[in-house]
Specification:
The structure is a single chain. 35% of the residues are buried. With 194 residues, the protein is mostly helical. It is 69% helix and 0% strand.
């Protein structure tokens, strides 16, 4: 996973995450819900691919379970779960997707980056969190790492030609989104510099 991602999470983002833990948890819940929705969308769109259907079905169930768990953490901590705007991250990646037959490969590569980044951020946060939240995030590392591999393996399986150049293309975009200044703090944002 660390070899797949083009850069580590900036230290400033980790500092801001600890200072904005309520917001981080709310956005984390939303990310889990979106991940489940994206997996379901792939299942509806690509009904002729049994391996994809199986992997995305498993992934959607796990992401919905994580959503329920994070909402429970919010309730336990007295944090109101509410809708907040999305970060620029996923849109920043998706706006570079190709159309037609290549769209599936791109969406799978993007899914791999999102899941790998989530896993890397959990790892970056764990040393700075209270014991209960650190334990929960440790429990997510394995599944998020598996989700990253599932997306990447499906992209490799369905590609009609090598995808190294496409992975490198999205890695460059991902690096820019993660390292550049952001205007809104979110789970997948860059550091916010005013």
């Amino acid at each position: 996973m660390y070899q797949f991602l083009p850069c580590p999470t900036p230290a400033l983002w980790v500092e801001q995450a600890i200072e904005n833990l309520d917001l981080l948890l709310i956005d984390h819940a939303q990310c889990e819900k979106k991940a489940a929705s994206n997996a379901m969308n792939l299942m509806y769109r690509y009904v002729d691919r049994p391996d994809l259907l199986k992997k995305m079905s498993q992934l959607a169930r796990e992401e919905l379970l994580h959503f329920e768990q994070v909402v429970g953490i919010l309730q336990d901590r007295g944090i109101k779960y509410e809708h907040i705007s999305a970060s620029r991250y996923a849109l920043g990646l998706r706006q570079h997707m190709r159309k037609g037959d290549d769209a599936l490969i791109d969406v799978l590569i993007i899914g791999a980056f999102i899941e790998a980044r989530s896993c890397e951020r959990f790892m970056a946060l764990i040393p700075h969190l209270d014991e209960a939240l650190a334990k929960y995030y440790r429990s997510l590392v394995r599944s998020e790492g598996r989700h990253y591999r599932d997306y990447l393996d499906l992209a490799l399986q369905y590609a009609k030609s090598p995808i190294d150049d496409r992975i490198a293309f999205f890695a460059g975009i991902e690096k820019e989104l993660i390292e550049s200044n952001d205007d809104t703090f979110r789970f997948h944002s860059g550091p916010v510099v005013e």
